[in-house]
Protein: Cytochrome D ubiquinol oxidase subunit II
Organism: Dialister micraerophilus DSM 19965
Amino acid sequence: MILWRYFMYISNNILLLPVCFFGLYFILEAMDWGLCIASSFICKSDDERKVILKLLRPGIDGNELWFLLGITALIFFVDSVYNLNESTKILTGIIILGCIIRFIFSLGIDIFKNKTSCRLMTLFSIISLFFIGCYSFMPLYEESYLLSLVGVLSSFWMIFSCFQIGCIYGAVKTVNPLSERFRAGYLVSSLVSVFAYLIFSFFLKSYFDDNAINSGYYWIGLVSTLIFYVLSFYFVRSRNVKVGLVFAYFYLICSLSTYFITYVSKFSCWKILNVILIKKELVNLHILEILLITVIWTFVSFIYKLVRKKLIYKWNDYI
């Protein structure tokens, strides 16, 4: 409530809400997206694919509500959304469809444990993340370009970051040899991920050249990201994957600060709607109640995923 009032009473900060909501969605859902991608690259048998499908449970974890709140806030708070309406519908459909697919796959483990189903799930996840990455920068362009270079670079970073989080989570929650393959997948993907992030960040800085991005906050976020990445990589390489998972999430949060700073830098180009009118509309939509439900639902689901026991499976040595 305190945070909500802070944003609502300071009109210049009200545009931070969509960015925060989208960021929360990505942080909480990165694990599931990553597991979906990893299912085709890490697993070597139906039993191992069953383990990944079990890790997707509970399936419907409420994370999509953060995305829907972000879309709602973006539409309400920004009076220059340009041609985003059609793209917003497509993106919302992709997010919801992804949730439905993961839920169905997690329930029908014996049906979807085959290689073909997992490959389709991986392909859908990669395409979805690519579209999400491209969309994330559309509000910053007056012409609403979907395939901007910075958006494409953002997409590649998102794909590898989700794969990275999915792998390290799989390494924590499974047993060998699957756990060791997850760990190896993390070590390789994290190198690609941080390299993609550096390219994306420096290109973003040169493209949106203004005071906000050139301020110390940009460099603080960049340095913090690299520090947490090194710590995560070190602990995972040392086979202390639980600690590595914690630092991997800190790395992900700090890397998202690049988006946050970029949107802050573009505030002056946006026209803010009447704040009093926004408050009335949000009250009519019962946003506070929805926000409370979202916080409780997603928090409980995330804690469940972190404290669940390791999944043990029967491994047949084919060597």
